[in-house]
Target: MFS transporter
Amino acid sequence: MSTGPGADSAPAHNPYDKHDKHDKRDKHAKHAKRNRRGERDKRDTHGGPRRTGTFSSLKVRNYRLFFTGAIVSNTGTWMARITQDWLVLSLTGSAAAVGITTALQFLPMLLFGLYGGVLVDRYPKRNLLMLSQGALGLCGLALAVLTLSGHIQVWHVYLIAFLLGMVTVVDNPARQSFYSELVGPSEVRNAVSLNSANFQSARLVGPAVAGALIASVGSGYAFLINGLSFLAPLASLMLMRTSELHQVERAPRGKGQLREGLRYVAGRPELIWPIALVGFVGTFGFNFPIWLTAFSDDVFHAGAGTYGFLNTLMAVGSLIGALLAARRGTSRLRLLVGGAVAFGVLEIAAAFSPSFWVFALLLVPIGMFGLTVNVTANSSVQLATDPVMRGRVMSLYMMVFVGGTPVGAPLLGWITDTYGARAGFATGGAVSLAAAVVIGLVLARVGGLRLKVEMHGRHPHVRFVPRERLTTAA
Model:
């Protein structure tokens, strides 16, 4: 049987001697190549020094299709998100109502997120994504029909937000764990980062278009465009070459798979503490629909255009953070903790900013560090997880990251309504900062590190060093 180009036409005399030597050399060469590839993949999986190009995942055809479809649907999603928040505020005049809408959208993830992960580990992710993307499009079209017909009421928005949340119970873990099948383990970090850049690029366009549509023709057309935008990811999934997907082991149907996933995460500090940190940050620090609507309406006395502009500034920072993450070769936990500390500090600073432009400009680094936290945690958790468990682990990750919103959004909405937008924003930043400091110290202790403070001239220098080094110095 031919094993390479030209094998059939090669000379075949003395087959029991020379050909056998060639076979041995070929086997040794292939074995060495496999070892080198295995070592390279191992370094990639554990966050080694390998650096990739910023757009290296786009060399893969299936990922290019996925990326292109996502650009269209993400733009529609951002249009709908901004329009939904402003519609609820217009119908009720309450920031707490915006918080309730956000909470209802993420409540299903909190209640059923782990069951979604079990389904994702059990069934083909491409098929699940085709179903979920179609359902999301139908929810968008339903909201468009209600708004354009003039029959929209706030309970309609609440109901559709809850239905959207039910679909994302499967869509989120399926999408997050699908990257490894599209590009393989060596490019997962880059693929996750580029997807975040894609999402934030859409955030630059979506809010601006939504603001223009709201001001000119009303909210209904923004919802209509969002519903139709899901045709793009459906087409991209259909056009993929299934033979080029990286095959992963699927979990067989059986009892106890949910408990198995929880035990798996609980026994690994490299998983449980990053997930805990993004849980605190996501629950208390990412309530921007509440804060930005409140700042636009109550603090700066502006309209939907200003709200869209503030979201665009955050998107600029998030896009910068995503591109930096795509270029970065590692997903170190110290970067995760440092990014969360900076995120909390900047939110507190923005809460007490003296003018509109100071507040607006601080949203850029807030977006950048918020995205850094999300991408670093996401990729480090994926790379530290066995493929057969990835759906359940990522469903837990998404459950604590966005599923905590039903707790955080109404609480911070109430604080914002009662004590003002500045108090609400500062509270979210303070909780994020406290969680980052505490979990950073826990990770340092687990990793055998201790905090060391040295004076360099008049300035203190703070760093973590191994315990053994401190003992030797003493």
Summary: Residues 1-50, 469-474 have pLDDT under 50 and may be disordered. The chain is about 75% helix and 5% strand. The radius of gyration is 25 Å.
